[in-house]
Fold:
Amino acid sequence: MSSLKKSKLSASAVRDYFSFPLVTAAFFIITFMSSHDMLNKRMQGLLVPVCCYIVMALSLNLTVGIMGELSLGHAGFMSLGAFTGVVVSQSLIDSVPNDILRLVIAIVAGALIAAVGGFLIGLPVLRLRGDYLAIVTLAFGEIIMDIVNCLIVGHDKNGLHIIFNFKGEKTVADLNLAENGTAIIKGAQGAVGTKTIATFTAGFLIIMLTLFLVLSFIRSRTGRAVLAIRDNRIAAESMGVNVMKYKMIAFVLSTTLAGMAGALYGLNFNMISADKFNFNTSILVLVFVVLGGLGNMLGSIIAATVLYILPEALRGLADYRMLMYAIVLILVMLATNNPKVRNLFVKILPKRKSKEGAQ
Amino acid sequence: MEFLSYLISGLSLGSVYAIIALGYTMVYGIAKMLNFAHGDVIMVGGYVSYIAMARAGLPGWLSVIIAMAVCTLLGVVIEGLAYRPLRSATSLAVLITAIGVSYFLQNAALLIWGANFKTYPSLISGTLKLSLGEDRQLSIPYVAMLTVVVCILIMVGLTLFTSKTKMGKAMRACSEDKGAAQLMGINVNKTISVTFAIGSALAAVAGVLLCSSFPTLKPTTGSMPGIKAFTAAVFGGIGSIPGAFLGGLLLGIIESFAKAYISTQLANTIVFAVLIVVLLVRPAGLLGKYVPEKV
Structure:
């Protein structure tokens, strides 16, 4: 078993580190294409969101693939990051005129708030197991969406004004903004009038940073502890691994990355509402992770890219595109998980046998 | 008086959740899978009965039977085509397939019936007005009463079915241990199909009752009630039939009171917050069996 594991580890290491040159190459090719007008406007508009969803997929893969717990509310952390990022960026618009610096500050702020959120939510959530953990993450995702929907935030020379519109009777006027003040988040309407400062280069850099963090995490002492907990919690616990602590570290790292992705995403649109980050978005990212392969970071990147662009590419089919998407999804799951089909693959490709068995 | 009317609307909503949750919990108990497409079967049930009533002009009771028949068939077909080939796959793979089925049903409904919402003609209209003393009047919609009665009947029926009949016992055996059940001569695949059939028929009933109380029908009608009912099933202890019933009712009442007394915007938040607290105190839900791990 140990020799098998060793060979698997090195194979997966090669695959994982291959992601860096692949992403870099893709970035330069796409930058070249877009500077030579080879991408249409719709594709240009997809670049930053694709980057954000790749980061989301990597981050969720840390929770689902490495930690082994199903999370159905990951979009909630993206939402925290997005709205924090938008508020920070919009309120610093005068004091930090440099777009790049402001973007960095906004992303860091988004990541921090998502980390705090992840910690607070992790405290109760990580005590549960299996489907119960899944349903509680779903619940938190919905709670975050509801609370952001009630949020009204404005900024003027006196600083930030925040009110919660819990009864549905407050409006932007209740902020009592001074002259020249601007409303940043208008309750259920979401953030409006955001200055879009997200760039494809920033997206690329965030993917690289995420890859670096996730891959070094997996191969660190902490990461090995998390993997041990995933493979056999009881054995790990009896070896002295503090389950709660290590799970918490992995979960907070995962939510921090989701917050970064969210901040970039929020600053890519001049209006965005909390409903964008609903249950369906969490599921979308989960689909990327599962189709890319649990624990397989390169797989997540490819799945996120292909599946995010697929509905756009299928636009020619008009109304049938989401139907096609659903059918493709079901067929892929059947093809990759049905033992009969898998055995067929094993027979055709004898070399892949050990890999298929290990996954 | 307001309190009572909120309680009644909560009971009625909770009964719908309970009926959906019963379907969820039965399927979970036996197939150990989260059937995310369940909410969309509700939507299909709603549309079929709408077509039968509003377009074909059939009477209400007949439309319910047609909806149940269509949904039962749909449930069995979905199970056979999408879930059965994945019997030995990981639960995550089955979950993603269920999500695929859910997308499929929603988009198929979008293509067939269009994106515009339909106004559902209520199964029975009118309200029962009870006067309690001077100028205090309590009005109970007949639909609410019907919903609660149907829910109780279904719950009693299912309990009897699972405890007394041969098929019910087979279901319980399969949910305990599929391998052992098969060795005892139980046809596991057939049992699971029957479970899906019952669950889907219940979803059709729930769809009709849901649309009778909240008459907007669109392709995503089933999603949110589906999620809430799933929450209710977990709340009561997933896999347990009385648990789903209790969880559904409590969830409906909490939601109704939260809307009335605290905040309309935060009703879902409060429902989910209660769920989280319950799971922290009782990790297997209200009536769920806590199974200690064996090492």
Observations:
- The two ends of chain A are 14 Å apart (CA to CA).
